[in-house]
User: What shape does this take?
Amino acid sequence: MKKGILLATLLFTMLIQAQQSVNIIPQPLSINLKKGSFVIDEKTSIEASKSDKEAQKVALFFESFLNKVSKVPVKNNISKSTKKISFLIERNAELGEEGYTINVTSDAIAVKANTSKGLFYGMQSLVQTLPLTKGNDLVQIPALEIKDYPRFKWRGVMLDVCRYFFTIDMMKEYIDLMATYKMNVLHWHLTEDQGWRIEIKKYPRLTEIGSVRNGTIIGRFPGKGNTNTPVTGFYTQEQVKELVKYASDRAITIIPEIEMPGHSSAAIAAYPELSCFPKERTKFRDTIFSLQSRKELAEGRLKFVQETWGVFEDVYAPTEYTFKFLEDVIDEIVPLFPSKYIHIAGDECPKESWKRSEFCQNLIKEKGLKDEHGLQSYFITRMEKYINSKGKSIIGWDEILEGGLAPNATVMSWRGEKGGIEAAKLNHDVIMTPGDPCYLNRPQGDPEVEPVGGWGVSTLKNVYSYEPIPSELNAEQAKHVLGSQANFWTEYIPTFEHLQYMALPRLLALSEVMWSPKEKRNWKDFRQRLNPQFKSFESKGLKYSKGDFRALIKTETINNVLSIVLETENPDAVMYYTIDGTVPTTSSPKYEKPIVIDKSLTIKAITVLDGQVMTKKPAEQSFAHNKALGKKISYEHKYSSYYKAQGDNSLIDGIKGTKDITKNWHGFQTNDVVATVDLGDGVSVNNIALGCIQNWSKWIFLPKWVKFEISTDGVNFKEIQTITNTVAPTEKGDIFKTFKVEIPQQIIKKVRVTAKNLGDTPIGHPEEKQEPWVFVDEIMIN
Assistant: This one.
């Protein structure tokens, strides 16, 4: 009997503890759990001020959520109610526009804020205390006090609907997901080379022609073949108004992006007069379009040309016709979007057409511009002036800095943080969204087992570790950092389910980066709060990635010995491994301590949670044993923080790089690579090698030459050989090259390797005469 009573008591205690557990994402500023709880029963009602319609909307949202999870029906404003859940507008200067407080006792819940936005965010936090399943007999909310407001006012998500089209219903579901985690800006990428997605009534061909393409490439750019499946679709102006209202009701502002002056193939396909060469056939625009009948479009006989990805020569001509066209487009865009901003892109604008155009060259002289970059600045500044006249401000990607920044522009920094830092120092507002880690179209786990995605990897932990305010900014300059955003470019995201998978759970990590105080962020605590969210995803039928379960294979020098260190981002998982090439199982050695690399080997590792193998394929890495392993290395110029691989050891860890440039490569922009390996008391050496890669589209070029030097006394160096690169910088694709020298066998104490940076991106490159990269992966000494 006593055992039965003890078991019942234990179960009751576990139930109370489960109910008292609060796992809110993003983490509130302060949360104070108290004893007891508010139990939903037939006497419970929800109320809001009758004079405040926006507060009433929030109350209705919560009523809808509550009635899904509780079998007890809850109504709005029951006069005889003795237990009330209230949503109240009440002035509190500390909370700002988006902050809120929540006070839960056993007989009342009060959510208070200065605005309906604050009430909405308080309501979302309250929702995360509710059960995940539907129709519960008992629903109770823990007694607590919360005070909360966001760190940044820009908490954005960019969605590209041009490569692939998402319906209005899909967009609404996407907005609901954003709202759950207190995101407040939807950056809607509506025009692109691959499609024009918004109705402009004055220019019907933009959607009749510009919204159609014949298919898309198969596999990663440049791809292998074409799907030949038409991609079509656009949003009517009425649909846009509907979605803007839907988002506004959920405290989200939609900001449209209308690309200019580059990424304009879709518009030029529809209206060739917008091009510098309207009658010219190019490899990027192989058909001169005229107005086609809807029947031809429906039958698929009209072929839209941009079936692939990349940067294309099609660019708006800076003519009066073009400016009138864009002003007309803006005239129709402005009434649809109440937002303060219009995004005009300004990124990746090729200059070849402008260089060949007599009109453009004359315009450069007439306006006293320095070059084609100055012409881009002229283009952007002119459009900014017109947009400002409509009461709006512009945002552009960081390329709008080139040639001079438009007077009132906000800069969105995507090519690392350099552009954002420069703009903030010029007293311009910036939004930090560097490709690493904010481009969530990248795989979030091992690219070999994850779906095909953008270049690089952005793991859940990478995203959570991001800090939007660079250390280079002082306190006053840091005020110009409005916030950050996640970006979803959809080259490899063809379905809405795939979009969900790429967003979850990384979107939650970035939401906490943008909302919660920096000092409150804690990776281990976040991962624990994330587990209930996985159950929430499943209950809602949302697809999500488990990419953070993969084993991470790293190296460390421990007591002057290079060793393999295995990690996993999931703190509850365990790892098993093999080093003989076989596939590991739960019967294989369990990872407990670093593994010494004393020979060439291939390690394979799996992660296991609750007895279940969590990855489809083991993580795998081969190590080429050589005499540089585990030695000390120093650099004359530090590698980029964006391409640091596993840190200093990455050039002497025996790991050769692959096409994934973020994984095992050190990247140096503008600077030469000058690396010195200290071999201690000396080792016998007869050859030295350096591995490099070239990828034209990513501004990565093989070095002009590689010089090898040796020191037998550890002080003085002697040049052995300088090898000149013979691969042209115009060669495209992934080109791997190993520079290697043979020397008479001798005892050497130090090796110095210098790889000469190309200096400028080559003539003919879309961004010629810019700062190129040199990438190196391994120094091998044998």
Observations:
- Confidence is low (pLDDT under 50) at residues 1-19, 282-306.
- The first helix runs from residue 2 to 20.
- The chain is about 25% helix and 25% strand.
